[in-house]
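Translate structure to sequence.
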């Protein structure tokens, strides 16, 4: 059983072309700007951010809601994401998952939030909204 916080903001999953610089100011947002994740691969620059911070020129999928697992989590733990993903997959709720050093995050489509929360609670997770 995990403690999970539903963050209040709506989020976007964004893509910029490979080789794009990280947009100016994105990494030094205001203190109340929520969670931000930037991932670079050879094929793209992906950004997860609040919907009001989507970079100019980015392809963006919105709106998503963000669930944060209470942490910090020990990096040696196993099955954390599985305990979240399995009930959501069973409920046919699509997700985007990402992690930091301390914890894991899941994005669920805003239109599927009620089903997602119900599935996680039924699995035994506690969710603070």
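Result:
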């Amino acid at each position: 059983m995990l403690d999970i916080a539903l963050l209040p903001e709506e989020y976007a999953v964004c893509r910029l072309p490979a080789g794009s610089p990280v947009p100016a100011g994105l990494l030094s947002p205001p203190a109340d700007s929520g969670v931000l994740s930037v991932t670079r691969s050879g094929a793209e620059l992906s950004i997860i951010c609040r919907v009001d911070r989507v970079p100019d020129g980015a392809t963006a999928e919105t709106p998503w809601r963000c669930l944060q697992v209470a942490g910090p989590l020990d990096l040696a733990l196993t099955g954390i994401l599985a305990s979240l993903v399995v009930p959501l997959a069973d409920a046919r709720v699509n997700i985007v998952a990402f992690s930091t050093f301390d914890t894991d995050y899941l994005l669920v489509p805003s239109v599927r939030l009620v089903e997602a929360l119900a599935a996680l609670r039924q699995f035994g997770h506690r969710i603070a909204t």
